[in-house]
Amino acid sequence: MKINILKPYAISGFIQKKLMKKGINCGYCVNYLESLVIKQGCQLIDIKNRGGLVIPAKNVVTIVKLADGILESFVKKGKILCQKDIIKKIEVGVKTLVLENHPIIFSNLNDHLDDLSCTSNHRLNLIDKIVACYVSLRLKHYCRLGKT
To answer: Is residue 21 part of a domain?
Structure first.
């Protein structure tokens, strides 16, 4: 189920576009994601683009790659569709890796606190949304392949 080297950019662009349109309720975070959009990107996207594709931010691609690695480890263990709270487990794994190995990812959102809780911030919420969207897409694809 491992994605090839060019696909993370296309999938990441789709996820970033989806979150900018209807996945994020905070105007500041949407503006922040829009400011990260790059004009020149991956060769595959440049070839396929007819004006609707979003070239993803490097941070989004990194999170998608981390999520894919963790998802792949769950797939190797087997019976991925039978596991409980698989998306939450992958979200926790990605957040752990980001905080330990990639502390600058979305670091501009660190001080942008969530209104609901003083312990939650928009940086972690954005990472969760990217991971949830990616894992959901991959699990749907996995189901269509007829694997369990």
So the answer is: yes
DSSP string, 65-115: HHHHHHHHHHHHHS-GGGSTTHHHHHHHHHHHHHHHH-TTTTGGGTT-B-S
φ and ψ at 113, to 5 degrees? -75, 155
- For residue 52, the enclosing domain spans 7-144
Q: What is the pTM of this model?
A: 0.81
In Å, how far are 1, 68, 119 from 72, measured between CA atoms?
Answer: 7, 6, 30
Contact status, residue 109 vs residue 117, Cβ threshold 8 Å = no
Q: Specify whether the CB–CB gap between 36 and 57 falls below 8 A.
A: yes
Token look-up 């998802």 returns 71
pLDDT tens digits, one per residue of 11-45: 888 898 888 888 787 888 888 887 876 655 556 66
* Total domains, the chain: 1
Angle at alpha carbon of residue 30, lines to 24 and 31, rounded to 5°: 170
Contact between residue 24 and residue 128 where contact means Cβ atoms under 8 Å apart: no
Q: Is residue 79 part of a domain?
A: yes
